[in-house]
Structure formats: structure tokens, C-alpha cells
Amino acid sequence: MFFGDESESYADALQRHYENGPKSNWQQSFISKYATSHPWEDWAETWSHYLHLIDVLETAYNFGMQTDPKISSPESLKMNASFNPYKETSFNKIMDTGIPLLYALNGMNRSMGENDLYPFIITEPVKKKIGFIHNLLKDI
Predict the structure, then answer these.
(1) Among 4, 11, 22, 45, which residue's CB has the most CB atoms within a 10 Å radius?
(2) The pLDDT value given to residue 76
(3) What is the model's pLDDT at position 74?
(4) Do 109 and 119 contact (CB within 8 A), yes or no?
């Protein structure tokens, strides 16, 4: 169960969330604070972020975007949006392209004195949830 026990009362879960705030260490397993409130919200928030990622990749694909950073980094930030993400079956290819793209977009926003365009962290548990959604769609 990626998203938790959905049989929990939604109304009770939301009330508890608004009274007590998000679960501690929420960043490790959830894409947002609100996703911690109930498995239905975790499902919805994860879907939302999957769609953001695919839409950003589609825009990058249509602009022919690629990066070849001149900075050293512990992880590769090189990417080439040379594929249509709506037709891509490999979730790893989407993530391997999407994460560097999001880093680049955040860097561009910071250069303009703005906050991060995508101020979220995709941890391994969140990546698995997003991958689950991708695999559901891939089989349609």
C-alpha cells in the first residue's frame, strides 16, 4: 500500500491534520504537507506532481531543451528532453530527465530573484508513488 489505509475516516483525518499539522518527518514519504492528511490526499497530490512533471517535460520536449551543466555536482544534471513524455514507457527515463530539468528551472528562477519554481523534494518513497501512477497509465 503506497498511499496508506484509505478506510480511515476522511473527515476525521482532515480534522486531525488541521488541528495537529503534518506528520513528523513528512518530507521523507510525502510530496507535500497536505498529502499526509489522508491516503486520498496523498494519492491526489502525487497525481498532481506526476502531471506537473509530465507537462514540464512536454514543454521542454517541444522547445528541444537540453542541458550540459558547467558545474560539478554529485549527481548528473545533464538532460535531453528528446522524447514525448506522454508516450514514454520508461519511468526511469522520465525521472532521469525530469529531475535535472527541475533543477535547471529552479536555477533560472533564482537567477531572476524568484523562489524555486518547483520547491518540492522527490525522495525515493515519493518516486515509487509517482512510478506507480506512471505504470498505471502505461498499461492503459
Answers:
(1) 45
(2) 76
(3) 58
(4) no
In angstroms, the first-to-last Cα distance of the chain is 21
39-63 and 91-111 helices, crossing angle to 10°: 80
Cell numbers found for residue 47: 497525481
Query: What average pLDDT score do residues 34-53 get?
Result: 97
Name the H helices within the chain.
Answer: 10-20, 39-63, 91-111, 124-138
Question: Could you tell me which of 31, 34, 30, 28 has the C-alpha nearest to residue 13?
Answer: 34
The three-class DSSP label of residue 40 is helix
**Residues 118 and 22 sit within 8 Å (Cβ to Cβ):** no
Residue owning grid cell 497509465 = 137
Q: Which residue has the cell 544534471?
A: 77
Average pLDDT, the chain: 93
CB 32 within 8 A of CB 45: yes
